[in-house]
Amino acid sequence: MNIGQAAEASGVSAKMIRYYEQIGLIEPPARSQSGYRVYAEQNVHTLRFVRRARSLGFSVEETGALLALWRDRSRASADVKALALKHVAELEEKAAALQAMATTLRHLASHCHGDRRPDCPILDEIGAGS
Amino acid sequence: MNIGQAAEASGVSAKMIRYYEQIGLIEPPARSQSGYRVYAEQNVHTLRFVRRARSLGFSVEETGALLALWRDRSRASADVKALALKHVAELEEKAAALQAMATTLRHLASHCHGDRRPDCPILDEIGAGS
DNA sequence: GCTTGACCTTCCTATCATGGGAAGGTGTAG
DNA sequence: CTACACCTTCCCATGATAGGAAGGTCAAGC
Predict the structure, then answer these.
(1) Nucleotides in C strand less than 7 A from protein CB
(2) Helices (H) then strands (E): counts for chain B
(3) What is the band of B129 on the pLDDT scale with cuts at 50, 70, 90?
(4) CATH number of the domain at A1-75, please?
(5) Is the CB of residue B107 less than 8 Å from the CB of residue B93?
(6) Which of A95, B30, B109, B128 would be B98's cystine partner, CB 3.0–4.6 Å?
(7) Please, which positions of strand D sit below 7 A from a protein CB?
(8) What is the mean pLDDT of each run of 10 residues along chain A (130 residues)?
(9) At what angle do helices A3-10 and A41-55 cross, to 10 degrees?
(10) Residue ranges of domains in chain A
């Protein structure tokens, strides 16, 4: 399987597969005589794991830690759970921060007439600072 | 006022003040004979506006649009409100995406014993892909 | 066999916002 | 006069991703 097919099968772009290899997140695959990367089903499996971890908001570095745990059959499930819950806390913190911004801004907007007149409490408040 | 004092007074780092000037977000300030940037109270006011807009999650580019609206006394408040509400929608979308990740992951974690045994549904599920 | 087009390779560049640091000039207090 | 804090510009790094250029490879069709 060439990189394009591995990309198709895993949902990770060829560009990103090469990048993940370059930074050491995944193992360099076999090469054909002409230098093409050759992927086996196992590699695609790993790539899918990476894609799914990324889609759950894990950074590439955290994904590397998860991969190591995935491959280490002797680690305690408590280690994995701790990592996951720590990440949940970070995600919820970020979500709350964004939601707080949205709420503040929505509040400011609710005081703005939104007509043709120029006076606007949104800009007034941003300008007043806090 | 030198850049350090302007940074202190506005809450924007000296590094970022120079950067904002370089990309054209803010006007180049006056310079002293020796080439030091010299800021007036008005400049600090603008910097505070920028800091506050950034803290509400507006990108630098959007902040530039807000600044233009702020300075244009003839614009309709509806224009500002539309921009603000569009941004609110984007913020809430991002917040919801993060919260969805957190919820999924918390769900996975709830099925993990979290003890010394190695079997862990979190990694199993990430590996299984979806 | 030869051409064409799809694919692969590496390498360089960009994004966005921010910080770090080097090398060198300035300003001020002791 | 010296020390130290501050300023200047310039370059580099981050994290994850995309775009593109220049050149090699492979398979299908003529």
Answers:
(1) 7-10, 16-20, 25-27
(2) 6, 2
(3) low
(4) 1.10.1660.10
(5) no
(6) A95
(7) 6-9, 15-19, 24-26
(8) 97 97 96 97 97 97 96 93 95 96 96 93 87
(9) 50
(10) 1-75, 85-130
Q: Which residues touch strand D (CB under 7 A)?
A: A 13, 15-16, 19, 32-36, 54, 59-61; B 2-5, 14, 18, 35-37
Residue numbers of A between 83 and 112 with CB closer than 8 Å to B: 84-85, 87-88, 91-92, 94-96, 98-99, 101-102, 104-106, 108-109, 112
CA dihedral B65, B69, B71, B75 (to 10 degrees): 150
Q: For residue range B37-78, list pLDDT tens digits in order.
A: 999 999 999 999 999 999 999 999 999 999 999 999 899 999
Sign of CA dihedral A93, A95, A101, A105: negative
CA distance A57 to A69: 17
Report d(CA B113, CA A78) in Å as an integer. Answer: 7
